[in-house]
Amino acid sequence: MSTAINLEAEFARFSETWSPKIIADLDDHQIKLTRLAGDFPWHAHGDADEMFYILDGTLRLEFRDRVETLCPGELIVIPKGVEHRPVADQGEVKVLLIEQAGVVNTGDGPANARTKAAERLS
What we know:
The protein is mostly beta strands. 4% of the residues lie in helices and 46% in strands. Strands 1, 2, 3, 4, 5, 6, 7 and 8 form an 8-stranded mixed sheet that branches. A hairpin with a 2-residue loop joins strand 1 (21-26) and strand 2. The chain is globular, with a radius of gyration of 14 Å. The model has no long low-confidence stretch (mean pLDDT 93).
C-alpha cells in the first residue's frame, strides 16, 4: 500500500553527509535522500544513469569538460559512464536521488572513506 512520505521528516531522521538513505522503491530504481557537504571524489557509474534533484542548498557538479551549478528546484541526469564530482562548498545541500537499485555512491571507482551502501530509512 502506498503512503505519503514527508521529505523533511525523513531528513530529520539522519544528519550524516554523503550517506544515502533509501525512502522508496520505483520498479528497479530506488529513491534516496542524502545530505552533502564538502567535495566528493571523481567517479562514474558505468552501468547506470543517476538523477540529482536539489531540495535545499547549492550543488556544483564538476564534469571533465564543464561545471553545472544546481539550485533548489533544479535537477540533472548524469548519463551512465560520465565522470563527475559533486561539490557542496557553500554549506549543506539536501538532495533527492533516483538511481538503479544497488548503485554504490562512489560508482566504478575504488572504495574510499566516502563509499557508503545506501541504508533504508522507511
